[in-house]
Design a protein that fits this description.
Helices cover 0% and strands 44% of the residues. The protein is an all-beta fold and 320 residues long. It has a single domain, classed as Tachylectin-2, Chain A. The strands form 7 sheets. It has a 4-stranded antiparallel β-sheet, with no helix packed on it. It is globular, with a radius of gyration of 18 Å. The N and C termini lie close together (6 Å). The relative contact order is 0.14.
């Protein structure tokens, strides 16, 4: 039987970033949720066996001492920043963990060798469950996009955007772009999370993940014209259907929490995501370690819209 070959085993919420120095940088959630790990390589395939560096370990107590989730590495405002979410405990209150968003920074050329700052909390003006931050720069303006709970809205998390003043501070109030509203966004949990941004073909695209982290996990899409005011919710269109979801035929379940990168040719867009290879999960899926990192080509249609396809054998490495 042929099965899909993951790029890296047991790495969820994967982020692959190709920097201007030609190196690929990789980070992700690790099963223990206790550190931030980086690796780098000249090619995507070489990330598998690249040496790892633990650039930050969680403390034993304090506001960010548990459940280190979804780190992303970005080079903005002249320095490297890793954005992540962390909680003061593993306690669940009102059906939610107690995560807030943080960033660590270094000015080192090679972030694996740099001296990283202590975590700085990213303040959004809303003190509630928040996670999964990403950044992007468009026409000289750097934006911060993330997921956060609004106590006045049903569900676990919505998507927000704001301009950034620095690598660790926001310049504008949060603007809500999306809430869980469709059936495929509300299976198990009411979730919009894990945003990732790609600017192509005259549009700004934000992919995101929805529903519980089991086989119901899937991806949605927002998009706006590249000339639009990105801080105006009316600029954005939301796909009414998921753009990437479980493939029962090939037994790849719950694909999501993606990032985008580009192949070694500098032109081919790639979708980086995590998924499982089985549905028989005992207990909360968050404690199951087998969410693996996959990479596949992102295609485009004649209208300049992304075609995510499905987790399919014809676009992935095969093993017997």
């Amino acid at each position: 039987m042929k099965v899909l070959q993951p790029l890296i085993l047991q790495r969820a919420d994967p982020c692959i970033r190709r920097h201007t120095d030609g190196w690929y940088y990789f980070t992700a959630s690790i099963p223990a949720y206790d550190r931030i790990e980086l690796r780098r390589a000249r090619t995507i395939a070489e990330l598998l066996n690249a040496p790892t560096a633990d650039v930050w370990l969680k403390p034993t107590e304090g506001p960010f001492c548990e459940l280190i989730w979804a780190p992303e590495i970005h080079h903005v405002f002249g320095a490297w920043h890793i954005y992540f979410a962390a909680a003061p405990s593993r306690e669940i209150k009102d059906n939610l963990f107690q995560h807030r968003m943080y960033a660590i920074s270094t000015s080192a050329e090679n972030p694996l060798e740099g001296k990283w700052s202590e975590p700085v909390r990213i303040e959004t003006g809303i003190d509630s469950f928040s996670l999964d931050a990403t950044t992007f720069t468009h026409r000289g303006v750097t934006y911060y996009v993330w997921a956060q709970k609004d106590p006045a809205i049903q569900g676990n998390s919505n998507l927000y955007i704001a301009r950034m003043a620095s690598g660790t501070t926001l310049a504008t109030p949060p603007v809500r772009l999306s809430i869980p509203e469709f059936d495929w966004e509300t299976r198990g949990f009411w979730v919009n999370e894990g945003p990732s941004v790609l600017v192509r073909h005259g549009r700004v695209f934000i992919s995101y993940s929805a529903s519980a982290t089991d086989e119901n996990y899937c991806m949605g899409l927002l998009y706006a014209d590249e000339n639009a005011d990105l801080l105006d919710p009316r600029s954005w269109t939301k796909s009414p259907e998921p753009v990437f979801k479980t493939c029962y035929e090939h037994r790849i379940f719950g694909p999501g929490h993606n990032s985008f990168t580009v192949a070694e040719d500098g032109k081919t867009d790639l979708l980086v995501y995590h998924a499982r290879t089985y549905t028989e999960i005992v207990g909360d899926p968050l404690w199951d370690p087998n969410r693996h990192t996959y990479v596949k080509q992102l295609r485009w249609d004649e209208h300049g819209m992304p075609v995510f396809g499905r987790p399919s054998l014809d676009e992935s490495v095969e093993i017997e």
